[in-house]
User: Which sequence fits this backbone?
């Protein structure tokens, strides 16, 4: 559970650092990197939670969690068209 | 981008974050109008930016909540199926609608929400008694330690189908309007589903990040995420959320809720004005 909290915290902190740096330096790539990190943070959280359910052998919720990841994948696919 | 504009965007984010943290709303409800009305950002770009800010605030808040055991992760992932599906639909449909339709829909939603806010906790709709007791879904039972009550609170989740449907709708609205959707989810979880308020708020906060992420991918794919606008708004809203949390711990924001309902109607009026001009 604490891994999930850390993943979220690191994601937000890292992305904010990149966004601030990108704005100050005026580099689009750093800003974009910050945005990508931020946008992927919730997915990372779901992945961690999935792993947690698997480790606890809560198979129903592991399955549901994987379902959420699959739906996120659908969204990514739609985005890449 | 001129420094002044970046500064204004950051300020706008701070305002959104402060209000959001004070009133337990995602920043989206305030963020989108600020961007569209005050800063002349086109509606689709404003929605995209707002969704990214929702990801930021949700992730920051959830990081704390998960550590304290408040967020019910089993309930969260279950409802996320509905909410993520809804978000994909909402985000996709938004691509087919012209900006002014989305702005009018946003204004209408603001008015509806302000009515709910003004009426308070026993707001309209079906009463819990009318829905019947509802089955408790055992696997979703959870408990957390409440320091203010100095004990552990245990609860079960009832009426999961209601929660799923509302989550689906909240997801669609999130993708369509750039809001978090928590304004729908928290009352339903707390009033109909037997989830204590703190746990409802924490669970909702965890979900809205995933919801916003699902729809923002669709906007990103359409090229509607403006990097600099979004960066400035995110930095602003994180600062604002910290300020809002600090203020909220020292005041009683509940009394301000009715005034905020009035503010929301005014904001809705401004959105409509913007459409007409």
Assistant:
């Amino acid at each position: 559970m604490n891994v999930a909290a850390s993943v979220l915290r690191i994601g937000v902190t890292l992305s904010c650092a990149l966004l601030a740096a990108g704005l100050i330096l005026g580099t689009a790539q750093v800003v974009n990197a910050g945005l990508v990190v931020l946008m992927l943070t919730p997915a990372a959280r779901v992945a961690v939670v999935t792993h947690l359910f698997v480790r606890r052998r809560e198979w129903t919720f592991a399955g549901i969690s994987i379902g959420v990841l699959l739906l996120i994948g659908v969204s990514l696919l739609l985005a890449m068209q | 981008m001129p420094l002044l504009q970046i500064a204004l965007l950051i300020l706008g984010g701070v305002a959104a974050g402060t209000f959001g943290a004070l009133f337990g709303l995602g920043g989206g409800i305030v963020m989108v109008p600020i961007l569209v009305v005050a800063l002349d950002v086109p509606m689709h770009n404003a929605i995209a930016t707002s969704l990214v800010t929702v990801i930021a605030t949700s992730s920051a808040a959830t990081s704390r909540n998960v550590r304290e055991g408040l967020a019910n992760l089993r309930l969260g992932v279950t409802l996320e199926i509905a909410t993520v599906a809804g978000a994909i639909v909402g985000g996709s449909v938004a691509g087919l609608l012209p900006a002014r339709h989305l702005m009018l829909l946003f204004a209408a939603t603001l008015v509806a929400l302000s009515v709910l806010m003004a009426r308070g906790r026993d707001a309209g709709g079906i009463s819990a008694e009318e829905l019947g007791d509802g089955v408790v879904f055992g696997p979703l039972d959870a408990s957390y330690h409440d320091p203010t009550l100095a004990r552990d609170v245990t609860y079960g989740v009832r009426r999961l189908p209601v929660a799923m449907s509302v989550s689906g709708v909240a997801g669609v609205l999130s993708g369509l309007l750039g809001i978090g959707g928590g304004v729908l989810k928290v009352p339903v979880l707390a009033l109909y589903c037997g989830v204590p308020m703190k746990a409802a708020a924490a669970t909702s906060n965890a979900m809205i990040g995933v919801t916003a992420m699902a729809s923002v991918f669709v906007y990103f794919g359409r090229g509607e995420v403006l990097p600099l606008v979004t960066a400035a708004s995110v930095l602003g809203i994180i600062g604002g959320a910290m300020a809002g949390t600090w203020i909220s711990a020292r005041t009683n924001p509940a009394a301000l809720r009715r005034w905020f309902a009035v503010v929301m109607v005014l904001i809705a009026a401004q959105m409509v004005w913007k459409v007409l001009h």
